[in-house]
Amino acid sequence: MPGHGHSLSAAKLFDQLRALRLLAAEPHNLHQLQQLVLQHVPRDAYAWTPPTPHDIVRLLVEGIARGDLYLYRQREQFKQPALVSPFDRGVPLKDLAGPDPEPEPQPPPEPPEEKILDWNIQCKHMIDDDPRTLERGTYIHVVPDGDGKAFDLKDVVQVLYRDDYKPPPGALQATPTGGATVAANSNGADGAYTRYPVEVEYLGEKDYVNFLRPAYWQAFNSVTKYRITEGPTPITVDVHYPYHWKFTFSLPPMRSFSAGAKYDEKIEHNKADGFSTKFHEATVTENVSSWSPSSFKGTAVRGWGSDDPKNGTVVEVGAVQRTRVVQAVKLERSDGAEIAFDRAEMLAKFFWLANSFNRVIDSLMDVVPKVGFYADINFQLMQGSLIVAWGWKEHTDHRAYRWVDVCIEMTIFSVKLEAGVGISGLTFAAQVYVAVLGELKVSISGSRPSPEAEATVKIPVESSIKGQVGVRFEAGYLVQIEGHGETGLQYNGDVSINDANRPISLNGQIQWLGLVFRAKVSVGLFGLGGTKTKQWQPIQAQTLTQVQWPEPEKYNPPFIPRSRIEQILEAALTRGLNIRVFRPSGSMFKSDYKWPIKDIASRLTDKLDASPTMRRDRKTIEAMAHGIREDLDEIGARWFRDWISEDDFLAYVDGAKLAKRIDEARDLGRELALQSGCA
Amino acid sequence: MKRPEPHPIYHLDLQIEHCRARVSLNGLPIIRLAAGEDPRGFMPPINPYLVGRNEVFVELMPESPEDEKFETFGLARLHGSVRRFKKGGPASPTGGVEILEIEIPDWIAEQEEKTPPLGFSFEFDSDDATSFAPELVDAPRDRDREAAIDYGMRLCGIVSEGDVDRLVKEMEPKIEAYAKAFDEPTLAFRNDLSEYLRTEFFPLQPQVDFPRTQVRAQPVCGGRLWHITRDGGPLLQTKPDAEDSTREIEIYAGRYEGRLRIAR
């Protein structure tokens, strides 16, 4: 009944709610209550048809609490035959509806005389040990088990049907969209109800495994729709994609990069000349508020050892990082099927990201090394664990929802960089060095528990790892950095969970701040002329890469063929005076054998070409050829400027010096791909 | 005959966090630093200020001048050293030979009331370097501040006239001291200075058109030298050039044969 629009006292409200609970406990009353809702609750309070039992009670409770509805004891208000009021069960009226000004004696209960038309739908899955049941429902979503056992793509929807007006049909008819109608015969009675098991099946595409492709998501989001007729009312059953997926991910650690030599070898690593370098740590922690905790546990690990500022303790690379990525990247399906997928395609974005760190190294090496250059760099990506599972799940009402369970305990990136470059324009030797030390960690946990909970979560992830700038200079002079100088790495982005067509995605960009500083420096001999204050920007800021993962990609950095490498080497070896390699004849009367220049270049090319990680772009190979030429000139100068013995040449080809040059020219992306088992 | 080893080069290094600090060596202020969360440091060469037995005086102050009771003392970090380097080699706060370690003394840390500035001193010897005790320790004190200010104005006049030779002449005591301190011929310093003033300093139009009231003279080295400045910076300073770069010359003046000249 409509109420008076006044709020009830606490005691009265309590009695009303208790009465409602007792009414709702009787399944046959639900239909009547549903009608009550339709008549008296504003339509905008519920968005679907019909309201579920849960919603009915909720809406009525809200109505009562607002004073819009009031439960009266008069039987005349509830004449419908299916209604069994709490009064029929002998519940004292006083206790239910509060004080009555004129209590009347109860008439004796009358047995319902009307005939009943009723039904409910049951899915095969259980909720709190009871079958998932929909009273008088017309629409239900089901998700088959997809667990690899028999009939894992099927579900059985039971229709329980009571019609006192006519005999039950022998069978209901179930028709999938675009498919043939199948009879669902009754298989007996359940009290006054006849039971019809209707077998439904997901008939959509099931074999796509590459979740980076739209086709996968098209299949994942599709339903097989069944229409069940011949019953009390047409019933629609949506059968969802059955499988659950689990993706586990981590990258192996990357090897550090070292090149050049410090101006002062005595300067200790990771010391910003007096103070330990500041460690910049940013951790984004998010437990999605409307979600349940994740069922997974992860471990975030830093990708490199670190020097404790106080004790100098070195933390070793964690055991997780030693695991090769072929084990650490895993895609599993709930039916236990072996899922083979293109790891290279999956990880290519990170190979590109690693490759972009080459640009940091390049930017440092491009600065003219007046007093030497050195770089000691360790970048790490995606260290720790990322676990995400997703699929469709049935809710307690008629709906199904897209479920996702995610646990990320991961260091998105970490950097430990120390590099020095010469300062130009000074009359004395000075080297400015940068020390960048920090990491960006993400800790996210959550499992979407219901369709009411937020479907998509986007978590901003930002971090700025500001580096320190220091100087070393020739004794007797001074260089003082004003302010702090500007260097470091910056990440701006987000982590999206359950976004369109992605259970998880990382988006953002990494920026290298380059190096800019203002300094006061000595002028004149030993600073006799005073000082000069000036700004230097030896390294420009640049965006290293845009991160959008996962996206299907190929890692294909520039690649020049062996023949071109050989040409470049040959050009370098014949610049000015030719490099000449001789095999001594051992006889004064026989001339030494002189290697053809092509053979010299070819032998060197063999070495370069054999490296699986060397950067094979023209600039790198030309720089390498230039360095090799310098090395060979140095060897040749021991005797005559252009005379190299075969033994010395071969020792160089197979020696540490050339190996170091090749190592310093390696492509971090290619190396990561190799370590990941993707090359 | 083997050339004698050049004198070693001494640097005084100071690194601080969450505080301000002033350091003077033998009474001559050589470092003034302020730092917040990010450490800052400075490591100037100190050979021209050595006197054999040297005193380093450190004054520690809170990061904020409003922190009158130095309540942020727990955050403040100060570390420094005096280090000896080989001439021609690199200098860095962890290189060379450490002669003196500079830390906040325990007795300062244990004080219940810490009223800034907190001062503490250290001593070290520099027997293997030229001593400038005659100028910096033994010279008579000069109390004529007005004369020092006048001298500052005279230097500004020389600079405004663009007279390189006169300015070099005024700097002769400094040239002599640097030549001794760094084992280089006086002529090399003199020529280098002339060249620098002519090609870099004067072309950038030093800003010397300020009134006498803006000139300051502060006694240093126990009143033996005057630190002559103008409001807001060194006495001799150029305008910023196209790259926003400036040139500065600090002036420490002392009496030589009764006349003020540039000592450092």
Structural features, described:
- The complex is a heterodimer of chains A (679) and B (264).
- Chain A is of the alpha+beta class.
- Chain A contains 14 helices and 28 strands.
- In chain A, strands 11, 12, 15, 16, 17, 18, 19 and 21 form an eight-stranded mixed sheet that branches. A five-stranded antiparallel sheet of chain A has the order 2-1-4-8-7, with helices on one face. Chain A has a five-stranded mixed sheet with strand order 3-10-9-5-6, with no helix packed on it.
- In chain A, β18 and β19 (430-447) form a beta hairpin.
- In chain B, 22% of the residues lie in helices and 35% in strands.
- Chain B has helices at 106-110, 133-136, 145-160, 164-170, 172-182, 186-201; strands at residues 9-17, 19-25, 28-35, 40-42, 53-62, 77-85, 90-91, 97-103, 118-125, 215-220, 225-230, 233-234, 236-237, 246-249, 251-256, 259-262.
- In chain B, α5 (172-182) crosses α6 (186-201).
- β24 of chain A pairs antiparallel with β14 of chain B, so a sheet runs across the interface.
Which features characterize this protein?
heterodimer; A: 679 residues; alpha+beta; elongated; B: 264 residues; 5-stranded antiparallel sheet; 4-stranded antiparallel sheet
Overall mean pLDDT of chain A stands at: 80
Oligomer: heterodimer
Distance between the ends of chain A: 73 Å
Helical content of chain A, roughly?
Answer: 10-25%
Strand content of chain B: 35-45%
| Structural class based on helices, strands and sheet pairing of chain A | alpha+beta
Radius of gyration of chain B equals 20 Å
What is the share of helical residues of chain B? 10-25%
Question: How do the helices and strands follow one another from N- to C-terminus of chain B?
Answer: EEEEEEEEHEHHHHHEEEEEEE
User: Biggest β-sheet of chain B, characterized?
Assistant: 5 strands, antiparallel
Shape label of chain B: globular
Number of helices of chain A: 14
Ranges of chain B where pLDDT stays below 50 over 5 or more residues in a row are none
Instruction: Please mark out the parts of chain A with pLDDT under 50 across 5 or more consecutive residues, or reply none.
Output: 74-98, 265-276, 302-327
| Structure summary, number of beta strands of chain B | 16
What is the distance, rounded to the nearest whole angstrom, between the alpha carbons of the first and last residues of chain B?
34 Å
Largest sheet of chain A: 8 strands, mixed
